[in-house]
Amino acid sequence: MTDYKLPEVWEAPESMDGKWGGLNRPTAGSRFEQTLPVGEKPFQLYSLGTPNGVKVTIMFEELKELGLTGADYDLYRIAIGEGDQFGSDFVAINPNSKIPALLDLSGDKPVRVFESAAILLYLAEKFETLLPSNSIERTEVLNWLFWQTGAAPFLGGGFGHFFHYAPESIEYAIHRFAMEAKRQLDLLDKELATKPYIAGNDYTIADIAIWSWYGQLSQDKLWDKAGVFLNVKEYPHLQAWTEKIAARPAVKRGLAADYQSIH
Ligand SMILES: N[C@@H](CCC(=O)N[C@@H](CS)C(=O)NCC(=O)O)C(=O)O
User: Fold this and answer.
1) Which residues form the GST N-terminal domain (predicted)?
2) How many other β-carbons are positioned within 10 Å of the β-carbon of residue 83?
């Protein structure tokens, strides 16, 4: 129990502890001028190898695996721990200051795309793959893609934050978010007991989005010993799906992608 008393109106503290505390501010927008490099390839991806970041490198590698040569990309590291996401050029691509952010330079005008699920959808539509054209099947893929977008903040911002990053272990917060993380894992396990991929018979952008968080958690590769803590081994169908996707050459390449410096 802390002795914190709620004031009537919240005010930002002078400083916050924890790995991310120093970066947070209650305001949006760019904090400094920074020109980003722009390469020759049709797509410019400004990102990092986090769960949201690897969704997009995996997607590009899947497109390349299919022989879609137009899916070539330059990949740049945005060091979020050092605040690169608040530079002016990055904020012009993603005003929300989060990786991943994509520029499509293949058309007459540059197109900016932010939010990892929006990027997956944009690329799937552009290259007409990993998303069924049949309306009913497409809806099921979008159900799971939007599920991931809504669910992962409970896992990452909630459970992962209080389990791994918070400066102290707060029992209430850990129970609150471990409960939800376990419920989400159980949901995926029950769904995957009935079909090979999360939206049906085929591998889609929904699998890419969900695997990047829940697959990596099932391999205990997200936060040190979080998989043990959440006993991920008790979900056999989720484990089998995780391993099947991890074995894909494009997934291996997407995880090992080489980021160029922006400085
Ligand atoms: N809903 C967003 C979330 C993106 C996100 O939270 N990115 C994190 C890294 S995984 C980030 O850039 N954090 C930096 C910050 O919060 O300042 C998406 O799916 O793209």
Assistant:
1) 41-131
2) 15
List, for residues 185-202, the tens digit of each pLDDT value: 999 999 999 999 999 999
In this structure, which amino acid lies at residue 258? D
Å from CA of 159 to ligand 1 middle: 15
Q: Is the CB of 98 under 6 A from ligand 1?
A: yes
Residue 1 has what pLDDT?
58
Could you tell me if 130 and 205 are in contact, meaning their C-beta atoms sit under 8 angstroms apart? Answer: yes
Residue 85, ligand 1, Cβ within 6 A: yes
Distance CA(75)–CA(44), nearest Å, equals 6
List the chain residues with pLDDT less than 70: 1-2
Q: Is the dihedral of CA 64, 66, 70, 71 positive or negative?
A: negative
Among residues 149, 20, 130, 139, the alpha carbon closest in space to that of 68 is found at 130
Ligand 1 atom at minimum distance from 53 CA: 10
In this predicted structure, what is the pLDDT of residue 3? 83
Ligand 1 centre and the CA of 53: distance in Å? 8
Q: Does any ligand 1 atom lie closer than 6 A to the CB of residue 226?
A: no
The confidence score (pLDDT) of residue 14 equals 86
